[in-house]
Write a structure and sequence with these properties.
An 8-stranded mixed beta barrel has the order 1-2-3-4-9-10-6-5. With about 220 residues, the chain is an alpha+beta fold. The protein starts with a helix and ends with a strand. It has a single domain, classed as Sortase (Sortase, Chain: A), CATH 2.40.260. It contains 4 helices and 10 strands, in the order ααβββαβββββαββ.
Length: about 220
C-alpha cells in the first residue's frame, strides 16, 4: 500500500515538474522585445553604416554585405532602406542592436521557421515608417543568396506596460486587448513570412507601442 502511495506521489511530482517546465517555456516564447531605449543616449545611435538605398543599388549592397556565410546579412527595399543584419547573441532573446543602419535577427522567430528583424525606433527602426503595403523586401545572405518578400500587413499595438517584454497589448485597429503570447503567435508563428518590428513612440514614452510589418515570400 505504501509503495503504491509513493508511486502516486512520484507521478504527481513528475507531472508538476513537467507542467512548470512547460509554463516557463511558454512564457519565454511569449516575449515581445522592447525596441526602444527608455533612456536613449546620443552615443547609442551615433554609429551608422553608410548604406542607403537612395545611393546604392541592390547589386552593390549585396556585394557590400557578402562574406561567404549562409547567414542573413542585409535587408533591402528599393528607394526605402538598405540595412545590415546582425544576429542575437545566444541566450539574449531581448537583445537589439542600437547601431543606426543595423537590424537584429530575432532568434525566437527562427524557432518557428520565420524571420524576425528587430530595430530600435531611435536607430534603424526609424526607417520602418517608410515601408508600405506592396513593397518588395530583399533579404540577403552572406553567400549572396537573395530571398524576396512582399509586404502584406502592417499592424500597430499599444503596449500597456511599455517597457515590459511580457506586456499586454491593445490592437489599435480593433481595440482588442491581447496578451504578449497572442501577439507573438500572430506576428511570428504560422506560415513562412518575414516580420520587421520596432517601437512606436508617443509623447515622452519612447516604447509606447509596437509596430509590426509582415511580408510574405514572393514565389
Amino acid at each position: 500500500m505504501a509503495l503504491k502511495i509513493n508511486q502516486t506521489i512520484n507521478k504527481i511530482i513528475l507531472a508538476a515538474i513537467i507542467l512548470v517546465g512547460f509554463l516557463q517555456y511558454a512564457q519565454v516564447q511569449a516575449n515581445i522585445p522592447v525596441t526602444a531605449d527608455p533612456f536613449p543616449t546620443t552615443g547609442s545611435a551615433a554609429t551608422s553604416t553608410t548604406t542607403k538605398s537612395s545611393i546604392m543599388s541592390l547589386t552593390d549592397f549585396t556585394e557590400g554585405v557578402k562574406d561567404g556565410k549562409a547567414v542573413l546579412r542585409g535587408v533591402y527595399i528599393p528607394d526605402v532602406m538598405a540595412l545590415r543584419i546582425v544576429q542575437q547573441p545566444k541566450g539574449q532573446a531581448g537583445y537589439v542592436s542600437a547601431i543606426k543602419g543595423v537590424v537584429t535577427q530575432f532568434r525566437m522567430a527562427s524557432d518557428y521557421g520565420n524571420i524576425g528583424l528587430l530595430a530600435h525606433n531611435f536607430a534603424a527602426g526609424a526607417e520602418f515608417s517608410k515601408i508600405s503595403i506592396g513593397n518588395l523586401v530583399n533579404v540577403i545572405s552572406g553567400d549572396g543568396t537573395i530571398k524576396v518578400y512582399k509586404v502584406t500587413k502592417i499592424a500597430q499595438y499599444q503596449a500597456l506596460q511599455p517597457n515590459s517584454t511580457n506586456s499586454n497589448f491593445l490592437d489599435l485597429a480593433t481595440n482588442e486587448k491581447l496578451s504578449a503570447g497572442s501577439v507573438f503567435k500572430a506576428m511570428y508563428s504560422g506560415k513562412t513570412h518575414l516580420t520587421l518590428q520596432t517601437c512606436i513612440a508617443l509623447g515622452n514614452e519612447s516604447s509606447w507601442g509596437r509596430l509590426f510589418i509582415i511580408a510574405e515570400p514572393v514565389e
